[in-house]
Protein backbone atom coordinates (compact mmCIF):
# COMPACT_ATOMS: atom_id res chain seq x y z
CA UNK A 1 0.00 0.00 0.00
CA UNK A 2 2.86 2.36 0.77
CA UNK A 3 4.27 1.53 -2.65
CA UNK A 4 1.16 3.00 -4.32
CA UNK A 5 1.54 6.27 -2.44
CA UNK A 6 5.24 6.45 -3.25
CA UNK A 7 4.48 5.85 -6.95
CA UNK A 8 1.89 8.67 -6.93
CA UNK A 9 4.35 10.97 -5.15
CA UNK A 10 7.09 10.07 -7.65
CA UNK A 11 4.90 10.81 -10.67
CA UNK A 12 3.63 14.05 -9.11
CA UNK A 13 7.20 15.21 -8.51
CA UNK A 14 8.16 14.13 -12.02
CA UNK A 15 5.20 16.02 -13.43
CA UNK A 16 6.34 19.17 -11.63
CA UNK A 17 10.07 18.84 -12.20
CA UNK A 18 10.06 18.17 -15.96
CA UNK A 19 8.27 21.43 -16.91
CA UNK A 20 10.35 23.38 -14.38
CA UNK A 21 13.54 21.95 -15.88
CA UNK A 22 12.43 22.93 -19.38
CA UNK A 23 11.61 26.46 -18.20
CA UNK A 24 14.94 26.77 -16.40
CA UNK A 25 16.82 25.47 -19.43
CA UNK A 26 15.02 27.92 -21.72
CA UNK A 27 15.80 30.76 -19.31
CA UNK A 28 19.47 29.84 -19.21
CA UNK A 29 20.00 29.61 -22.97
CA UNK A 30 17.44 32.25 -23.99
CA UNK A 31 18.30 35.62 -25.45
CA UNK A 32 18.44 38.43 -22.90
CA UNK A 33 18.51 41.46 -25.18
CA UNK A 34 15.33 43.55 -25.29
CA UNK A 35 15.46 43.66 -29.06
CA UNK A 36 14.30 46.38 -31.40
CA UNK A 37 11.46 48.42 -29.83
CA UNK A 38 9.99 49.24 -33.25
CA UNK A 39 9.96 45.60 -34.22
CA UNK A 40 8.38 44.55 -30.92
CA UNK A 41 5.62 47.18 -31.07
CA UNK A 42 2.10 46.02 -31.81
CA UNK A 43 0.90 46.48 -35.38
CA UNK A 44 -2.51 48.03 -35.96
CA UNK A 45 -2.78 48.61 -39.72
CA UNK A 46 -0.17 51.38 -39.86
CA UNK A 47 -1.93 53.25 -37.05
CA UNK A 48 -0.30 54.37 -33.86
CA UNK A 49 -0.87 51.67 -31.29
CA UNK A 50 -3.08 52.60 -28.39
CA UNK A 51 -3.47 50.67 -25.17
CA UNK A 52 -1.61 47.59 -24.10
CA UNK A 53 -1.37 44.21 -25.66
CA UNK A 54 -3.68 42.75 -23.00
CA UNK A 55 -6.72 44.79 -24.06
CA UNK A 56 -7.69 42.24 -26.70
CA UNK A 57 -7.77 39.41 -24.15
CA UNK A 58 -10.50 41.18 -22.17
CA UNK A 59 -12.65 41.27 -25.28
CA UNK A 60 -12.88 37.48 -25.46
CA UNK A 61 -13.08 36.81 -21.73
CA UNK A 62 -16.92 36.75 -21.54
CA UNK A 63 -17.05 34.18 -24.34
CA UNK A 64 -14.56 32.00 -22.50
CA UNK A 65 -16.45 32.40 -19.23
CA UNK A 66 -19.62 31.18 -20.95
CA UNK A 67 -17.94 28.42 -22.92
CA UNK A 68 -16.25 26.80 -19.93
CA UNK A 69 -19.44 25.88 -17.97
CA UNK A 70 -21.09 24.79 -21.21
CA UNK A 71 -18.13 22.52 -21.93
CA UNK A 72 -18.24 21.06 -18.42
CA UNK A 73 -21.95 20.39 -18.78
CA UNK A 74 -21.29 18.66 -22.08
CA UNK A 75 -18.65 16.49 -20.40
CA UNK A 76 -21.19 15.58 -17.70
CA UNK A 77 -23.69 14.67 -20.40
CA UNK A 78 -21.17 12.39 -22.07
CA UNK A 79 -20.38 10.72 -18.75
CA UNK A 80 -24.09 10.35 -18.01
CA UNK A 81 -24.68 8.70 -21.37
CA UNK A 82 -22.21 5.95 -20.49
CA UNK A 83 -23.81 5.12 -17.12
CA UNK A 84 -27.44 5.94 -17.87
CA UNK A 85 -28.50 2.29 -17.74
CA UNK A 86 -27.30 1.71 -14.19
CA UNK A 87 -28.48 4.91 -12.47
CA UNK A 88 -32.03 5.58 -11.42
CA UNK A 89 -34.65 7.58 -13.28
CA UNK A 90 -34.56 10.64 -10.99
CA UNK A 91 -30.82 11.11 -11.39
CA UNK A 92 -31.15 10.88 -15.17
CA UNK A 93 -33.93 13.43 -15.11
CA UNK A 94 -31.82 15.77 -12.97
CA UNK A 95 -28.85 15.57 -15.34
CA UNK A 96 -31.00 16.19 -18.40
CA UNK A 97 -32.61 19.16 -16.62
CA UNK A 98 -29.15 20.50 -15.73
CA UNK A 99 -28.08 20.30 -19.37
CA UNK A 100 -31.21 22.07 -20.62
CA UNK A 101 -30.95 24.85 -18.04
CA UNK A 102 -27.22 25.40 -18.63
CA UNK A 103 -27.75 25.55 -22.39
CA UNK A 104 -30.51 28.12 -21.89
CA UNK A 105 -28.21 30.20 -19.69
CA UNK A 106 -25.39 29.90 -22.24
CA UNK A 107 -27.58 31.11 -25.09
CA UNK A 108 -28.94 33.94 -22.94
CA UNK A 109 -25.39 34.89 -21.98
CA UNK A 110 -24.25 35.01 -25.59
CA UNK A 111 -27.27 37.16 -26.40
CA UNK A 112 -26.43 39.55 -23.56
CA UNK A 113 -22.79 39.77 -24.66
CA UNK A 114 -23.92 40.52 -28.22
CA UNK A 115 -26.26 43.28 -27.00
CA UNK A 116 -23.60 44.88 -24.81
CA UNK A 117 -20.83 44.85 -27.41
CA UNK A 118 -23.10 45.54 -30.36
CA UNK A 119 -21.63 42.65 -32.30
CA UNK A 120 -24.82 40.69 -32.70
CA UNK A 121 -26.34 43.48 -34.74
CA UNK A 122 -23.30 43.91 -36.98
CA UNK A 123 -22.77 40.21 -37.60
CA UNK A 124 -26.33 39.10 -38.16
CA UNK A 125 -28.13 42.01 -39.65
Descriptive notes:
There is one protein chain. The protein is mostly helical. The protein has 2 domains: 1-30; 55-125. 77% of the residues lie in helices and 0% in strands. The chain has 5 helices and no strands. The chain has helices at residues 2-29, 37-40, 55-83, 89-117, 119-124. Helix 3 runs antiparallel to helix 4. The longest helix has 29 residues, at 55-83. The chain is flat, with a radius of gyration of 24 Å. The protein starts with a helix and ends with a helix.
Q: For the terminal residues, how far apart are their CA atoms?
A: 64 Å
State Rg: 24 Å
Number of strands: 0
Mean pLDDT: 76
Quote the beta fraction: under 5%
The 3D shape can be described as: flat
Number of helices: 5
- Give the oligomeric state of the chains in this entry, treating copies of one chain as homo and distinct chains as hetero: single chain
| Low-confidence blocks of residues | 120-125
Percent range for helical residues? over 70%
Order of helices and strands: HHHHH
Number of domains: 2
Secondary structure category: mainly alpha
The largest pleated sheet is described as:
none
Amino acid sequence: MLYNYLAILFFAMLGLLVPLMFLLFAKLIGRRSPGNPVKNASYESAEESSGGSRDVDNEYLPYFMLFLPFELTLAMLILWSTVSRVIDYNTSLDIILLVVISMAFSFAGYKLIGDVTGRAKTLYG
